[in-house]
Amino acid sequence: MRLDSLLSVKNLSVSFHENHILKHISLDVRKEEVLAIVGPNGAGKSVLLKTLLGIIEPTAGSIEWFPGIRIGYLPQRFHVDMYLPMTVGEFLDLKPRKILTNEAVLRLLKLEKSWLKKRLAHLSSGQLQRILLAWALLDDPQILLFDEPTENVDVTGQESIYTLLHHLQDTTGISLILVSHDLQVVYKYANNVLCLNGKQVCYGEPKEALNHKTLSELFGDHTVFHHHHL
Q1: pLDDT (tens digit, 9 = 90+) per residue, 36-59?
Q2: Pairing state of beta strands 143-147 and 19-30?
Q3: Could you give the number of structural domains in the chain?
């Protein structure tokens, strides 16, 4: 592992009951970098994140984290019962270990202290995503794993989330591993991109890795033509 690396993955494979989900994945994430993971539905993107976190056991290969690294994770889906009588502050107080205060993470996310009194069930999908991000930031992570940060969020909310993530990286130096279906976001924010379709289709800088052949293998010719003119 390089001195400036937070994560090094070598030849990683994952299988469920002899069904190969991921094969021969290798990647590195350095300090203050953004790695985007792209691929079609069922390509193994979420499985990869859960394997990096130790939730799923790999069948081959190695995962090496920087010793003592603090990791934040936001899952793809989080359901809140509309009848749940819990405020944002009460939800954040459930965090078992905190380095930052509730107020401090709200400031990082450009939210007023009054948000602590808002009911979780009354938040929009975009607002809830910010509070989940606040939860992850309470540990003051050095790297954040974010699975489809704009899933079920409207277009305005999507732009807000990505702008916020960029702001966080500028102000805290946090590294990001970001699963995204939006290639414009990948081109704009990512230092490197990992293309998955059960195996590693590409890895490198977006402008080099996301070529016509790669996009065709991932999404088909129609999608390639659409994104070729981004």
Answers
A1: 999 998 899 999 999 999 999 999
A2: unpaired
A3: 1
- Does residue 13 lie within any of the structural domains? no
Beta-ladder partners of 19: 16
**Of residues 48, 55, 49, 54, the one with CA closest to residue 22:** 48
Find the DSSP H helices in 66-220: 88-92, 102-108, 125-137, 155-172, 183-189, 206-209, 212-219
Ranges of beta strands (E only) in 39-174 are: 60-65, 71-74, 143-147
Distances (CA, A) of 178 to 28, 136, 184: 14, 14, 13
Q: Is residue 188 part of a domain?
A: yes
Supply angle C-alpha 89, 92, 93, rounded to 5: 85
Question: Each residue of 13-40: pLDDT tens digit?
Answer: 999 988 899 999 999 999 999 999 999 9
Contact 47, 21 (CB under 8 A): yes
**The residue to which tokens 């995503």 are assigned:** 129
In a domain, 15, yes or no: no
Q: CA–CA separation, 212 vs 93, rounded Å?
A: 48
Q: Does some domain include residue 165? A: yes
Tokens of 119: 């009911």
SS3 category, 228 = helix
Q: Report the half-sphere exposure of 4 (CA within 13 A, side-chain side).
A: 6
CATH at residue 48: 3.40.50.300
- pLDDT single digits (tens) 59-114: 999 999 999 999 999 887 666 676 778 999 999 999 988 999 999 999 999 999 99
Q: Domain range spanning residue 221? A: 30-57+71-76+87-228
